[in-house]
Amino acid sequence: MENLEHIQRIRKVLDYIENNLQEDLRLETIAKVGLYSPFHFHRIFKVIVGETIQDFIIRKKVEKAALQLSKNKTKSLTEIYAEIGFNSHSTFTKVFKKHYGIPPTQFRKLAPEHFSKISQINGNNEQNTVIFEQYICTIQQIQKIMEHTKIEVKQMPEMNLASVLSIGMQNVEKAYEKVINWGISKKLFPGENVKMISVYHDSAKVTPHDKVRINACMLVELPIKREDDVFPETLPSGKYIVGSYFITLNEFEQAWNGLFLWMNEKGYQFRKSYPYEIYHTNYKEHPEGKMSVDFCIPII
């Protein structure tokens, strides 16, 4: 079987896991989703994703819990761990503490809105220690960016995309090279109405940067058929917060943080879908490395 066929199957598996974290994700069930035998699935998954299937499932469960703990202060701990398939408080606390270094109750207290990035380091005792890093820029700097930002709540249309999966932020540029080369071969790129879009399947706030899944995409008029590692993807229509920025790449994190703060302050709730960025200009063509970009957050 070709490597590209494996990638297609593993993408299907990743989506299934993401949408069924509360279920009993047995190896046999997940392997069947990807049309694999359980015996071969372990090895193929680790080669493509970079971690074992069990490690991936646990990490996704704990990351989802971390987001709930930091964003939803009213939801009980029992509700949170039940939603991701844990049957007991003690088991959930043990797994969460192993991943982040502190129990979930303490995590919730230490995760106010002015902290944004969570990372792990190994201490002298080889135990994971959690570090809550403040924004790279100050709150005042975020506010300065937001002062020049146009924010709207609007209905976004359904969009057909040609998509290349990137696992790890370090691989995003290569993914875009692939989708652009595909666009050139189809005589779609460059084009007056061509838009490039990044779709975030993980949050960089809780997922290590080398494991974040980002789809590098090109907007197309009609659904495409899979070719090599270029896959069809559809962004659903729906209600979105859209922040329009003119910024550098170094300001993206602050811009996202500011937009999520705005969402919380206005009382909007995040909808189960994927945030994305729409690029209107190329930063490489601007003398200061700036680009026009829309950040889109799906909301209820």
From TrEMBL:
Location of the HTH araC/xylS-type domain: 11-110
Lineage: Bacteria, Pseudomonadati, Bacteroidota, Flavobacteriia, Flavobacteriales
Keyword DNA-binding: yes
SMART domains the record matches: AraC_E_bind, HTH_ARAC
Molecular function GO labels: DNA-binding transcription factor activity; sequence-specific DNA binding
Top-level division of the source organism's lineage: Bacteria
Protein name: Transcriptional regulator, AraC family
A Pfam family this chain is assigned to: GyrI-like
Keywords: DNA-binding, Transcription, Transcription regulation
